[in-house]
Amino acid sequence: MSAYNEPKRLAEFLLKQCLERGVHLHHPAKAIFVGKDMRNELSSVRVADLTSSTETDIPCTRIIITAGAWSALVFKALFRTSDITLPIASLAGHSLVIKSPRWVEAMEEKGLHSVYTTSSAGHSPEILAWKGGRLFLGGVNSAEIPLPALATQSKVLGPSVEELKQIAAELLASETGHTDYEIVRQSLCFRPVTPWGLPIIAGIPDEHLGIAMGTRPGEEGGVFVAAGHGPWGISMSLGTGKVLAELVQGREPSADISHLGLRQ
């Protein structure tokens, strides 16, 4: 699916749809505190505007944490006395978006394709075809690159980009050996991963929310998390959203997520 849906375009489309349906977006902002009522049940979340000193308390009885590789940090910031840590770490990955001068529109009539291979350096490069003659090249990953405080603070690392360029030269050179493609974009993103390789799509039991903190019973309350999809977050995003919405609303999920619970 990633070969057909460019992540940036899909994300922009979904954001546009949400705003058109009346969703209020706080950005750039940070959730910094959760409030509770006289029954010690979740009743609000405090959001700080990062461009000013303004803080806003938003009434709520349910919270959904879908902050990717930052999900564990968000959970700990909001539920500071919790006895658990979300087992979600970061896998950093560099990528290039390349445009080939040999592309013609007629090629797309035969479909868009993906190529998965290996490199002498031990990586597993992958090339995904996007519409308009653009190619996504990724697969140079590292679990050692520190997670920045904000996604916008990530900076590509020269050696990893050079390695990708070398891979591109080996795989995408013309018949004469010339590397006449254009590099449109180079990126570094941080993907959320779990130790067991499966994402978490689940509610967090009240007993793990911290001292004197609970939520309303049934579909009226709860704290939920969806993260840990690794490099396949875009592919599984829409399905995750569907079953997460069903979970939050107290309905039977339309897919079996019994193996995607919280583990410690």
TrEMBL record:
GO terms for cellular component: cytosol; late endosome. Residues 6-247 form the FAD dependent oxidoreductase domain. InterPro entries: FAD-dep_OxRdtase, FAD/NAD-bd_sf. It comes from the Eukaryota. GO terms for biological process: retrograde transport, endosome to Golgi. Pfam families: DAO. This is FAD dependent oxidoreductase domain-containing protein. It comes from Thyridium curvatum. The lineage of its organism: Eukaryota, Fungi, Dikarya, Ascomycota, Pezizomycotina.
